[in-house]
């Protein structure tokens, strides 16, 4: 199975309109047809949003030396010491009762349990899954028709415990779930901890922290108005409770201490074999060492707003799962490895589409190749891809991917220029004097040459025969977009303002002013039949192969604009046969080969696939847009990629 298994699989079925009817294959095998009921009265495209799944739970399975994760897209499994980029996905197609998972644990017999919206599933020794739902006694929250299980644990007597949105339940010998005597029979139970040696249970609930002693009596611990999210018994029997406004440490001798972290919110707690206590918080990781000292850190690939929602350990190794889909592995005081679970780089900024149906996606954490069958291949610093982020991707006629990376100003890691060969090898092709000049705006010219702008001061050209040339522009050229006019071979760069700078086929430099007719230039692209398309804040300008120009304002095209009549955060993509796409913060405009336009607002895109409404929407942060040979539209939008199939 690929790492995309469990995402909504969207395909196409027949239909006589310009757009086929969208067909959605749900995880349980049902087929949903999505007829369009909008203002255009035609069948519409299907839509898939590739969004990193939140890692809500982690568990280490020592018997199989594997790591398991609970996500909204199903259960994930890694070999514990293997490449984090290689894992398996388990969904309802494999026998799970649910895919929107909240918890995962491994019992003393080595069996993996997962729980979420719909119930609980257990993996048997032969790989089959046994499941429980409402019919097996799992309770529903008042007013809800759905079972929602938030946490799992194995109780002191070996019976399974489940925390739900309707209290705490226990699995009986008859295979049914029933409320635990004396435990909460309503309200959310977000976390469960067990001290088997002392026969105690602790709960993180929406009200407080709770503890059942060996004699069956219950204690309650105040942790602020929002309750608790995590509980943990350490090796000495002390109880740690992580809350949303207050976190407490209840010593085994009965004394209570509050512990202050960089953030009030503690989502997860775990202890490694060195005795260090790890806390997953809204601001990264905090660790309390055995000597009582605290340290606060961010694994590599993180940022100041990193929310760590799941933790588990193997010896002194810690795994930390995050809401942005990143999984980090590291040792106390050692190196960290971070990988994006779905392969989409952290900050998807650059797209390039290959003729064989593959998509290359570059961002802050590296480069990912999405194969037509849905499989990913990842290139990051461990693979030799130096730099802090991917700035450009060019696919040449020999099947290579040329990748320019950005570096730190004045220090390592420096910028780099690399090629990924058809056999997957990565070759460093950085010139020795590259330093911190980022190779940006890579493009392929009709003669097979690959061009990169180095910083704002020099052009680097790699010819098909292996020669490398440098060209100095007559003036600094800090361009944001580039394209080749197929009509005469001129290469045009856009560097802000309302004019283009071009290099003709004879080496002559030229300019092309737009006189502000479409506002500040935002993007440009080449038409397949020659000429250029220019996107400005106020509209579109077409310059055909003969040099004739035609202009449309954003209002005339029906685009939703700001109060100043301008497009916000817009990107342009040109396809074959005169097709065109414009993505902006309020919608998507699609031009068909006959010149007609289709306009899809945020609400209309959400009607095709509700995933488009999840905050942030792909339209909120459009970084790049490409049209594939099959007419599909791809959008790179920060932490996600959206594909609209035509």
Labels describing this entry:
646 residues, Methylamine Dehydrogenase, Chain H, 4-stranded antiparallel sheet, disordered N terminus
Task: Tell me what you see in this structure.
The chain is an all-beta fold and 646 residues long. Among the domains are: 9-50, no CATH class; 260-341, Beta Barrel (Thrombin, subunit H), CATH 2.40.10.500; 345-478, 7 Propeller (Methylamine Dehydrogenase, Chain H), CATH 2.130.10. The chain has 1 helix and 59 strands. It has a 4-stranded antiparallel sheet, with no helix packed on it. A hairpin with a 5-residue loop joins strand 9 and strand 10. Residues 1-44 and 300-304 have low confidence and may be disordered.
Task: Walk me through the topology.
Elements: E1 9-12, E2 22-25, E3 31-34, E4 46-50, E5 57-61, E6 66-71, E7 74-79, E8 88-90, E9 101-106, E10 112-116, E11 119-123, E12 129-132, E13 149-154, E14 160-164, E15 167-171, E16 177-179, E17 189-195, E18 200-205, E19 209-212, E20 218-221, E21 228-233, E22 239-243, E23 248-250, E24 256-258, E25 266-271, E26 277-281, E27 284-288, E28 294-297, E29 308-314, E30 317-322, E31 326-331, E32 336-340, E33 348-353, E34 359-363, E35 366-370, E36 376-379, E37 389-395, E38 401-406, E39 416-420, E40 426-428, E41 439-444, E42 450-454, E43 458-462, E44 468-471, E45 481-484, E46 491-494, E47 499-503, E48 509-513, E49 521-526, E50 532-536, E51 539-543, E52 549-553, E53 571-574, E54 580-584, E55 587-591, E56 597-601, H1 602-608, E57 624-627, E58 633-637, E59 640-645
């Amino acid at each position: 199975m690929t790492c995309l298994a469990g995402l909504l699989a969207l395909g196409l079925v027949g239909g006589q309109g310009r757009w086929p009817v969208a067909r959605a294959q749900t995880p349980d095998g049902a087929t949903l047809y999505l007829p369009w009921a909008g203002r255009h009265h035609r069948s519409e495209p299907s839509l898939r949003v590739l969004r990193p799944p939140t890692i809500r739970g982690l568990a280490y399975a020592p018997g199989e030396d594997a790591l398991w994760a609970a996500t909204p897209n199903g259960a994930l499994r890694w070999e514990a010491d293997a490449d984090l980029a290689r894992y398996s996905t388990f969904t309802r197609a494999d026998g799970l009762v649910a895919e929107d998972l909240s918890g995962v644990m491994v019992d003393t017999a080595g069996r993996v349990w997962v729980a979420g919206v719909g119930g609980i599933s257990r993996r048997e020794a032969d790989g089959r899954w046994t499941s429980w739902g409402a019919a097996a006694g799992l309770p529903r929250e008042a007013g809800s028709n759905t079972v929602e299980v938030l946490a799992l644990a194995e109780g002191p007597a070996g019976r399974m415990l489940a925390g739900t949105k309707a209290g705490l339940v226990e699995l009986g010998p008859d295979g049914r779930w029933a409320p635990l005597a004396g435990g909460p029979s309503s309200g959310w139970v977000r976390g469960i901890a067990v001290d088997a040696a002392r026969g105690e249970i602790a709960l993180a609930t929406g009200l407080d922290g709770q503890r059942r002693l060996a004699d069956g009596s219950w204690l309650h611990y105040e942790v602020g108005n929002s309750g608790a999210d995590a509980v943990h018994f350490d090796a000495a029997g002390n109880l740690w409770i992580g809350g949303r406004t207050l976190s407490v440490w209840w010593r085994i001798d009965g004394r209570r201490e509050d512990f202050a972290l960089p953030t009030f919110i503690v989502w997860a707690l775990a202890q490694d074999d060195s005795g260090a206590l790890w806390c997953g918080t809204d601001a990264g990781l905090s660790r309390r060492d055995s000597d009582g000292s605290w340290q606060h850190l961010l694994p590599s690939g993180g940022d100041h707003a990193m929310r760590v929602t799941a933790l588990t350990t193997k010896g002194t190794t810690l795994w930390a799962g995050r809401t942005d889909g990143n999984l980090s592995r590291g040792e106390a005081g050692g190196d960290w490895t971070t990988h994006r679970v779905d392969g989409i780089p952290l900050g998807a900024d650059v797209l390039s589409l290959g003729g064989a149906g593959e998509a290359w996606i570059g961002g802050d954490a590296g480069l990912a190749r999405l194969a037509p069958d849905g499989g990913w291949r990842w290139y990051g610093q461990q693979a030799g891809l130096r730099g802090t982020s991917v700035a450009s991707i060019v696919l040449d006629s020999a099947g290579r991917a040329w990748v320019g990376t950005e570096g730190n100003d004045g220090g390592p890691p420096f910028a780099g220029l690399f090629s990924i060969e058809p056999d997957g090898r990565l070759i460093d092709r950085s010139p020795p004097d590259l330093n911190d000049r980022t190779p940006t705006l890579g493009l392929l010219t009709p003669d097979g040459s690959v061009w990169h702008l180095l910083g704002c001061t020099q052009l680097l050209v790699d010819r098909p025969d292996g020669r490398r040339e440098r060209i100095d522009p007559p003036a600094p050229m800090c361009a944001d977009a580039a394209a080749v006019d197929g009509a005469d071979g001129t290469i045009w760069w856009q560097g802000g303002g309302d004019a283009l700078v071009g290099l003709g086929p004879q080496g002559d430099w030229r300019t092309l002013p737009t006189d502000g007719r479409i506002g500040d230039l935002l993007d440009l692209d080449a038409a397949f039949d020659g000429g250029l398309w220019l996107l400005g804040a106020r509209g579109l300008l077409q310059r055909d192969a003969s040099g004739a120009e035609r202009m449309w304002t954003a209002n005339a095209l029906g685009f939703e604009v700001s109060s100043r009549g301008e497009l916000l955060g817009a990107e342009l993509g040109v396809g074959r046969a005169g097709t065109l796409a414009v993505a902006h913060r309020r919608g998507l405009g699609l031009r068909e080969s006959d010149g007609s336009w289709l306009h899809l607002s945020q609400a209309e895109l959400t009607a095709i696939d509700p995933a488009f409404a999840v905050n942030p929407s792909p339209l909120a942060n459009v970084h790049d847009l490409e049209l594939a040979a099959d007419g599909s539209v791809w959008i790179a939008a920060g932490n996600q990629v959206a594909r609209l199939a035509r």
